[in-house]
């Protein structure tokens, strides 16, 4: 019974964490709309794989994270640059677009599983998120510091991530179809989200230490 609670807790925390509109969630919608659901699922699984890795690093102990703080600091600044560039070119693509075409991020032959891994890896904000939640759950006795609990919690979180992205895949596809939204509008939306994500990450980098 305790294992079910741990799994469901991990699922709920991760699912709710995916609900706020962000670059990864809206990308899953774009792939579903502009390509197909198979590619969207590949992308979502790629995102979940990296999130699981970040979570396991967090559960392994903050000491490891602190010893590798420079790596995550570099990754954080790289995220700012990449998101700003993607935001700028998304706006430029939408501005020059006179016919229906894919979003800038999808104008390539990269396997969507690899794309999901890449975008999730450029999101080091997951580390503080999981550090806060795992500490809270450990302190309140919901999660116990042992191999089995950590594995069940991690599986639950990975499932929650995929569930949240699936909501954007199918719900977003339904909404865009219902509203008859053009790809040009989607490019503008994606550009705005990338710029906003870059500014949020910049604030994190300038306003506080990694953890």
Description:
The chain contains 9 helices and no strands. It is an all-alpha fold and 211 residues long. Helix 2 (23-34) runs antiparallel to helix 3. It starts with a helix and ends with a helix. The relative contact order is 0.24. The model has no long low-confidence stretch (mean pLDDT 79). It is a multi-pass membrane protein. One of its GO terms (cellular component) is plasma membrane.
What is the topological layout?
Layout: H1 2-18, H2 23-34, H3 37-60, H4 62-67, H5 69-96, H6 112-121, H7 126-139, H8 147-179, H9 183-207
Helix pairs in contact: 1-8, 2-3, 2-8, 2-9, 3-6, 3-7, 3-8, 5-9
Q: What's the Cα radius of gyration?
A: 18 Å
Overall shape: it is: globular
Order of helices and strands: HHHHHHHHH
Mean pLDDT: 79
Number of domains: 1
- Count of beta strands: 0
Low-confidence stretches: none
Strand content: under 5%
Helix count, DSSP H or I runs of 4 or more residues: 9
Q: Briefly note the structural class of the backbone.
A: mainly alpha
- Separation of the first and last Cα atoms: 33 Å
> Largest sheet, if any?
none
What is the helix fraction of residues, given as a range? over 70%
């Amino acid at each position: 019974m305790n294992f079910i609670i741990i799994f469901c807790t991990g699922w709920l925390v991760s699912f709710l964490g995916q609900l706020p509109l962000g670059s990864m969630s809206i990308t899953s919608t774009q792939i579903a709309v502009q390509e197909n659901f198979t590619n969207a699922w590949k992308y979502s699984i790629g995102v979940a794989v990296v999130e699981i890795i970040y979570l396991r690093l967090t559960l392994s102990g903050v000491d490891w994270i602190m010893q590798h703080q420079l790596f995550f600091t570099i990754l954080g600044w790289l995220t700012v640059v990449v998101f700003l560039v993607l935001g700028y070119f998304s706006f430029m693509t939408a501005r020059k677009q006179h016919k229906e075409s894919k979003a800038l991020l999808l104008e390539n032959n990269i396997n969507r599983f690899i794309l999901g891994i890449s975008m999730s890896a450029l999101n080091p904000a997951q580390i503080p998120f999981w550090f806060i939640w795992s500490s809270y759950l450990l302190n309140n006795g919901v999660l116990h510091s042992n191999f089995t609990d950590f594995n069940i919690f991690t599986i639950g979180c990975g499932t929650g991530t995929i569930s949240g992205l699936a909501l954007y895949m199918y719900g977003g596809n339904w909404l865009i179809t219902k509203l008859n939204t053009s790809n040009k509008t989607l490019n503008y939306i994606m550009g705005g989200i990338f710029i906003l994500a870059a500014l949020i990450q910049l604030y994190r980098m300038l306003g506080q230490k990694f953890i």
